[in-house]
Amino acid sequence: MSGARRVIVTGFEPFGGHTANPSAEIARALDGAAIAGAKLKTRILPVDLARLDGALDEALAGAEPALVLALGLAAGEPAIRLERVALNLADFAIPDNSGALARGQKLDPAGPPAHLARLPLEAMLDALLAAGIPARLSESAGTYLCNAAMYRLLQRLPAHVSCGFVHLPQLPAQAAAALATRAGRAGETGLPGLASMALETQRRAVEIALAVALAAGLETAAPKA
Questions:
Q1: Which of 77, 115, 146, 163 is catalytic?
Q2: Residue 167 annotated as catalytic
Q3: What gap in Å lies between CA 165 and CA 162, rounded to an integer?
Q4: Is 146 part of the annotated catalytic residue set?
Q5: pLDDT at 42
Q6: Which of 57, 63, 65, 155 is most buried, judged by most C-beta within 10 A?
């Protein structure tokens, strides 16, 4: 695949008591794969704000990607979530994996308040829904490590590089484990936070999103008549 476009996909390690993270599993599975004529390189990021910059530097080292897609877990989310905005803010509800609990902290004191995703989000959404995969647009990637990764990638990558973030639901086994720990669960209704999606469906969703984004990048780069 000499001369093929390069794509970087990142996932996150487990965090917050989860024993798995579908974003990491999908990233590992896609490493070295080819989608729409592009070669994929993947990396797993630490859920650790102090180590995030170094991990991103390592992921991008020596690469001139056409597209960078970061993935993360949104436990309890029922759909693939396409993020519009990354905020210049770290404000954690739970500690990261190093035990740090950022509160009202700017990711870049000199940076803009927010960065917009550089992805064809509407086209990605249409393609996912047409494939029968639940998906939605989201106005913010939150204020935890997923948002930090999205903000810092958009901040450091050249403007011509497509870049954004996709949140994934938890896996059925994670929802089952949560149910197994609930006391008095017989007859319980309304069970919040237990939505899940099969890993195979999530991987297909990521592959569709990548293909749509790469096609849009080709259209943008094509010379005008």
A1: 146
A2: yes
A3: 11
A4: yes
A5: 97
A6: 65
